[in-house]
Design goal:
By secondary structure, the chain is of the alpha+beta class. The chain contains 22 helices and 26 strands.
Length: 685
């Protein structure tokens, strides 16, 4: 596929067996370090391969500007000029995964028709072969090996290659060749002399690992830029104590050619490269730090944070299982986990007092990380530790510290013995600092959501009463913006042989609006119970709202239902008009006389209107969130609601309610709350 469309790298992803996750199965053209942050991709992730699979179409990104605008996670980690195409791998009956391929940034900005056809045909062939393998019960999974792109044969035979090496040895400039992973496969004597390292110590080693003063993120970034963009890049580095060298990188399909030359000193720079112990690990570290920092800004709840750590951090650091712990009421609380059976995690951690001397509590209370490279070490330091052996061989207990205080503990467990050198401990601690910031926000968000949902549930009716001659159904949908709590309300109040129905909307969708909504609903119910007629109920509620002095308004529709003779008396205060579906299926908008919003004018009057409600009729009371949306004319929306009421009006009332809120319930963003109350007149048994 890469050869057909002259692309330089790519990968195939397969769907995980029981998770909404894409796993990288094979890759070609780039080192694993470059693609490590995306070896596991959630189907909902804002990434090209996930979008291609969700939408079952080709996704084309023509350069770094478009990448930054559409897929900022990738642009942050790989801010280089390159183009990318992602396509689904699927048959008409089964979706298997997705692929991506990349080109240098110098290619034309549009994907040619022949390229599109080649890619689509290749994905179709791959999907067919996967289907055949599936039918033959052959396992589908990641390939432990690595694909390599096709190499172009050099002209000439062995003698020519030998002469080329002799010629390079005579040149005064340093020349060396790096493979796709940065390892040196050839260098001439001048290069070894300039680098100050014997040739034998350089061959087969990554350049920045073998040459300590080149172990610097800035130089690694130039290497990555050359490989990904396929453009010539260069940098100048200081060889201690005072020799400046110029490096020019020429990328190819199978690696890089590097020209090294003497350079003039750079005036005004005091930069000297550090000497970390393991240069090869730094590429993974930089990528994951950048990718995680970007991804964590998109997490919302605690489970989002746990899922992100499990999908992106755990594979990178090689751990087999993880647990995220918090505290509540002086005891440990399991916030999320992966890789352990549920029963084990809860029995071992959940509810353990913080005073218990075990690693999880000690790290949480002190904020000091703990690393154990063997079971014996863990047993020696914590001999009275609760629980049994968890089947793992090494553990890292990392404090999640945000705003100067511990908010949780992240436990990483490794299936094999795993030493934790100083640089790895620093990396893990840095990662957990980012996780802690997101976890603190997520805990606050989840607490707000629980508060909002509990308050809303307490203020709205838990169920609607059963009334003779009346069937009722209701729906409530909070706004997706804000705290998911609002001022929309409804109620159905029995009063002997009669009943009263009310629906209303207090301005705003926050705690203040919800609190006022509860007061209004209670007041309406009280005025109804003492026998006030509809007009008086609204007048009394209006005066109460003004006396409260909250400077919020409310709309309302109040109905007195008399199922026996099939009559309804309605009073309205600035609320959208109800819809009435007659037994013959015709729908009428009850845009009858009414008064102003509640809370505006103390002496306001609310005229009433009486109309018939014969058996088989359906009344639809709703709030404006059901019919108002940006860019949609209110009359068109009301007409569309009436059409659905006419079409589904004979269905069971619960089904009808679901149909009327269908589009609103599935909307990603609802700027306002939605309340719906349906009343159907039936003949009493």
């Amino acid at each position: 596929m890469l050869d057909d469309v002259h692309a330089h790298s790519g990968a195939v992803y397969l769907l995980a067996p029981d998770e909404p996750v894409l796993e990288m199965a094979v890759k070609a053209g780039l080192p694993r370090a470059f693609t490590a942050p995306w070896e596991r991709v959630g189907l909902s992730a804002p990434l090209p391969v996930a979008q291609a699979l969700r939408e079952l179409r080709l996704i084309w990104v023509n350069g770094e500007e478009q990448m930054a605008a559409r897929f900022p996670r990738i642009a942050v980690v790989l801010p280089y000029p390159f183009a990318l195409a992602a396509l689904p791998v699927a048959t008409p009956g089964t979706v298997y995964g997705a692929i991506y391929v990349t080109w240098p940034g110098s290619r034309p900005p549009e994907l040619a028709e022949w390229e599109h056809e080649h890619l689509t045909a290749a994905c179709a062939r791959l999907a067919w072969r996967l289907e055949q393998a599936d039918a033959g019960n052959l396992p589908l999974g990641p390939d432990p090996g690595r694909l390599t792109t096709r190499r172009t044969a050099l002209a000439g035979a062995t003698a020519g290659a030998t002469e080329a090496a002799r010629m390079a040895a005579r040149l005064p400039h340093g020349l060396c060749a790096l493979d796709l992973h940065g390892s040196i496969s050839y260098l001439n004597p001048a290069a070894a002399e300039m680098l100050g390292v014997p040739a034998g110590a350089l061959i087969g080693s990554p350049l920045w690992a073998a040459v300590p003063w080149l172990n610097d993120p800035m130089y690694e970034d130039r290497y990555r830029a050359a490989l990904i963009s396929r453009q010539v890049t260069s940098f100048v580095a200081l060889r201690p104590p005072g020799d400046w060298l110029s490096f020019r990188l020429y990328p190819g399909s199978d690696g890089l050619s590097v020209r090294i030359a003497r350079a003039r000193p750079l005036a005004g720079t005091g930069h000297t490269a550090g000497t970390p112990a393991r240069g090869t690990a730094r590429l993974v570290t930089i990528s994951h730090l950048l990718n995680l920092a970007t991804a964590l800004t998109e997490t919302v709840g605690v489970q989002d944070v746990v899922r992100l750590v499990a999908d992106q951090i755990a594979p990178a650091v090689g751990c087999k299982a993880l647990v995220v712990l918090g505290s509540r009421g002086g005891r440990l609380h399991v916030l999320g986990h992966r890789g352990y059976p549920d029963a084990y995690v809860r029995e071992r951690w959940h509810g353990v007092p913080l005073s218990e001397r075990i690693p999880g509590t000690h790290v949480l209370t002190t904020g000091v990380p703990a690393f154990f490279d063997s079971w014996q070490q863990l047993e020696r330091l914590y001999p009275r530790r609760q629980g049994t052996h968890d089947g793992m061989a090494s553990w890292a207990f990392l404090p999640l510290i945000a705003s100067g205080r511990p908010v949780g503990t992240c436990v990483l467990a490794y299936a094999e013995p795993h030493p934790f050198p100083a640089d790895e401990r620093a990396v893990l601690t840095s990662l957990c600092g980012l996780i802690a910031q997101a976890l603190e926000r997520a805990l606050l968000y989840d607490a707000e959501q629980q508060l909002a949902q509990g308050l809303q549930a307490a203020l709205l009716p838990h169920s609607l009463p059963s009334l003779p001659g009346i069937e009722a159904a209701a729906r409530y949908l909070p706004a997706t913006l804000g705290m998911e709590i609002g001022g929309d309300f409804y109620d159905l109040v029995p009063t002997g042989v009669r009943a009263a129905a009310v629906i209303g909307d207090v301005q705003g969708h926050n705690v203040t609006a919800a609190g006022l909504m509860g007061q209004i609903r209670t007041a309406v119910r009280a005025y109804t119970t003492v026998g006030q007629p509809p007009a008086a109920v609204l007048r009394s509620t209006n005066r109460l709202l003004i006396d409260l002095g909250v400077e919020l308004f409310a709309s309302c529709v109040y109905l007195r239902l008399d199922p026996g003779p099939g009559r309804v008396v309605m009073a309205r205060a600035g609320h959208p008009p109800p819809l009435l579906r007659r037994p013959d299926g015709q729908v009428r908008v009850l845009d009858l006389a009414g008064g102003p919003l509640l809370g505006i004018e103390r002496q306001a009057g609310y005229p009433t209107t009486e109309f018939a409600l014969p058996p088989g009729s359906v009344l639809a009371l709703y709030t404006d969130g059901l019919v108002e949306s940006p860019g949609v004319d209110i009359e068109d929306a009301l007409a569309e609601l009436g059409e659905r009421l006419a079409l589904y009006g004979d269905a069971p009332l619960q089904t009808l309610a679901d149909q009327l809120v269908r589009d609103t319930a599935t909307a990603v963003e609802r700027p306002d709350d939605v309340a719906l109350l349906l009343l159907r007149a039936v003949r009493p048994a």
